[in-house]
Amino acid sequence: MTLEQLIQSLTPEVYENLKTAVETGRWPNGVPLQDGQRELCLEAILRYEVAHEIPEDQRVGFIGGSCNSSKGEDDTQTLTIQ
Predict the structure, then answer these.
(1) Can you give 36-57 as a three-state secondary structure string?
(2) Model pTM score
(3) What is the pLDDT of residue 4?
(4) Which pLDDT belongs to residue 60?
(5) Exposed, middle or buried by CB within 10 Å (0-12, 13-18, 19+), for 48?
(6) For residue 15, what is the DSSP state?
(7) Hey, is 26 helix, strand or coil?
(8) Which end of the chain is more exposed for a tag (fewer CB within 10 A), N or C?
């Protein structure tokens, strides 16, 4: 089974359980996630959302709203990493 087939086979219940595990750091039965499991769960969640065409505003990590400039400049912002 490929990763894409696995993602396609996830049920909405498993998807919600993965989201809860990432949020709380624990599986539904209370067992803490082991090293690396949070990252793997998050990757599965993100891939599920794309594969199942979850609307962008309902996806994990979505930040809504817009940036309004009081000076009338455009709403874009630039992030510079040094």
Answers:
(1) CHHHHHHHHHHHHHHHCCCCHH
(2) 0.71
(3) 87
(4) 85
(5) buried
(6) H
(7) strand
(8) C
CA distance 48 to 73: 37
What's the Cα-to-Cα distance from 2 to each of 6, 24, 56, 67, rounded to whole Å? Answer: 6, 28, 25, 40
Q: Tokens 């894409």 correspond to what residue?
A: 4
pLDDT for the residue numbered 64: 82
How far apart (Å, rounded) are the C-alpha atoms in residues 57 and 74?
A: 22
- Give me the helix-helix angle, 37-51 and 12-24, nearest 10°: 140
Contact criterion met (CB below 8 Å) for 45 and 54: no
pLDDT of residue 68: 60
- C-alpha distance from residue 56 to each of 28, 47, 59, 63 (Å): 26, 12, 5, 10
For the chain, residues with pLDDT lower than 50 are none
Question: Which two structure tokens, joined as six digits, stand for 56?
Answer: 């962008």
